[in-house]
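Quick one: structure for this chain?
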Amino acid sequence: MDRKKPGFGKQLADLHRWNAWIVVILAITGVLLFWEPVRGWLDGHARQPIKQLHIALGLVTGIFLLLYIPLMKRHLKQIRNRPRQKGNLTLVIALLVGWLLSGIVLWQLRHFSPAWANAALAIHDLFTWFGVPYLVYHSITRLRWAKQPGRRAVNTTGTVAATQPQAKQPAQIPGGRGWADQGAAVPASPAPWMNRRQFIKLSVGAALAVTFAPPFFRWLQRELGTGEGGLPGVTDNVMPDANNMLPEPTPLPDSVNVVGGGARGYFEMYTVTRLPTFDSATWKFTLDGLVDRPTTWNWEQFLTIARTVQVSDFHCVTGWSVYDNTWEGIRLSELLKQAGLQSQAKFVKFYSGDGVYTDTLSLEQAYMDDVLVALLHDGRPIHRDYGGPVRLLVPKMYAYKSVKWLNRIELIDKDQIGYWEDRGYDTNAWVKA
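Got it. Here's what it folds into:
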């Protein structure tokens, strides 16, 4: 026997319910991707599955939108005289389409220029800051128990009054000796100034505003370049550097003058371990492996190596960028030349001072003229939170190749998988020009 096709209302209800659950899971996975401690879960292996789940569910919302299109005309006709429902429908569709399109750009990041990725990230974040609180508010205030104003109401006397119909009670006649007949008039109770649903809507709205408004405005100020979020081209608004590296490197004239004009954008702080700290009294930098002249420098010795200044952009695989950075450091090609490479050397491995993070480049990549072992950014020592005192800089690749807290370079004969590559990232992290 053929199953009866679900009616129009049932189809709408099913789409609404399933889409709501998908959005809830998207919100949860989005928070987990944004939340810094998650990067260390399961030794870093949790992030990539969460990211893939987030992407897959985002694409499912696109399927739901396609399924809704044949129903849209009839649905709009049904609610043509309900402006609030039409407004809600328009807003929800706009949110879903915005999330979907910006998410696709971020998912296929390597096929788009950094400018597209930056715009997509800003749109995705903006819709999230606005959309998630709105959908939470909409979901709670539309629950069945919240839509029953007759259950309870707050009246002007501050007492809770029942407003459900009640059986008539005999009235006491003022000054009389007994009860009046059942049909006698009962004095009316004071009218409530706020019913159950109004109270819930007001309470939920206030709670969401208190929760989301402060971080939203901090995010907005940072995006507009007026706040203190992230690390801008100068570090006046950043906590004091936890490193104790003395003496500080003396910047070259082009660094002092910040020939790039000052970095545009903000660095986000990502780490897979607790932030390490370094002291010049114990800090060491080693270049070894398949080289003729392995060397270890202390801090003062390392500062004597000739440096150069370059202006380049910095792109993260999560979609943000910082443009026109003025970096000062040592050309990696010069360090390798001084060390004298042996014929077996084919790859360069980089070690972070956090004791966990590593990555590799081929010799051809390592010899690119803009690969730098950097010490200064816009004329100042690189802050500990962003990879100082020394970090690798590979401008033509995404930032996970630019190892922070660099303290060792090893020449090896076979490629070795880097930290994030072992967890699903591409080995060759080229940025689309």
